[in-house]
Amino acid sequence: MLSINSNLLLALNNATSEPIFLLDLEYNVGGSANTLRISDRDLVFNSMQYYGIVKSFGSYHQSANILDFTTSTGTMQMAGINTPSSLKNTRFSDLFATNNFINRKWTLWLWESHLGATRSKIAMGYISDDLKFDDCTFELTLDDYTSIWSRDFPKTIINKTDYPNCPDTNIGKPIPMFYGNIDVNADAPTSTAEFDRHLVGGHFPAPITSQYNISDGALNCYPDTATLKQLRAKNIFMGKEKYFLACENANVNIASNPKIYFSGNEYRLLVDFINIKGSSNVTNTGNAIDNNFDNYATFSCEAGTPAYI
């Protein structure tokens, strides 16, 4: 994942910013570690010389499947100048052939020149042996292996042995690891309208692990394998397209948090008004559709005077 410090981010947002990519390629000569530093221009960064032989840094791609807890291995295909005098009076291809670059580390940095010696690491990995070149240009593949430095997330996989009544579509899927805020909005009014059923910080998936548990008389699902602080019986939803229907809390049991039991066919939905019209007896109608409970529309009706909303 890309990570850029706040000072660099502010500098990049500046209209006069000049972001520069810096690429470090490590190699070995006679048992001694060395680093070849290249960029798209000749420059000196923090007393380190960068040679301007890069024509293109190409594209760097990574992806993650949140539900399956899997990531892809990213690669970067860079292109550069390979003329006889482009690099230390030699070709890059010659330097690559006579020194041990393969499987050595590469690091890509982003530098904003106005910030002096501050730069941010964008990506890193190992140099592959995939070098294509001719007398003028070269292409080098850089493999991303950040997973080597990363820890695997613990995961519990849904299977028929532990969850014999789970839906077939959920077999092999992991039980999620909860993150974020799904608690009731602090501004939700406490009234008989029970807005605290619907106005929450967000929604988080809980795969069904049992379509019907005979001993519990309910469906089972898990949003996590650890106890959740924000799990509330009033805030268990069934998702349908863009809507979330709140299950009647009398039909929900969260006593075995994080395991959720729910049953019945009573669900409640809060629908936002797109527009509202009324007679002259209704004022400030916009306040009825802005989801702001600090203001409201006013409806007044006198005897003998028709009014509608």
What does this structure look like?
With 309 residues, the protein is mainly beta. The protein folds into three domains: 6-148, no CATH class; 168-268, no CATH class; 272-309, no CATH class. It is built from two helices and 20 strands. The protein has helices at residues 6-13, 92-98; strands spanning 19-29, 32-39, 43-45, 48-52, 54-56, 64-65, 70-71, 75-81, 105-112, 119-133, 137-143, 208-213, 218-221, 237-240, 243-247, 252-253, 260-262, 267-268, 282-283, 298-299. The protein is elongated and about 95 Å long.
Shape: elongated
Number of continuous helical runs: 2
How far is it from the N-terminal to the C-terminal residue, by CA?
A: 51 Å
**Which residue ranges are poorly predicted, with pLDDT under 50 across at least 5 consecutive positions?**
none
**Percent of residues in β-strands:** 25-35%
Give the mean pLDDT.
81
Number of strands: 20
The major pleated sheet works out as: 9 strands, mixed
What topology does this entry show?
Blueprint lengths: L5 H8 L5 E11 L2 E8 L3 E3 L2 E5 L1 E3 L7 E2 L4 E2 L3 E7 L10 H7 L6 E8 L6 E15 L3 E7 L64 E6 L4 E4 L15 E4 L2 E5 L4 E2 L6 E3 L4 E2 L13 E2 L14 E2 L10
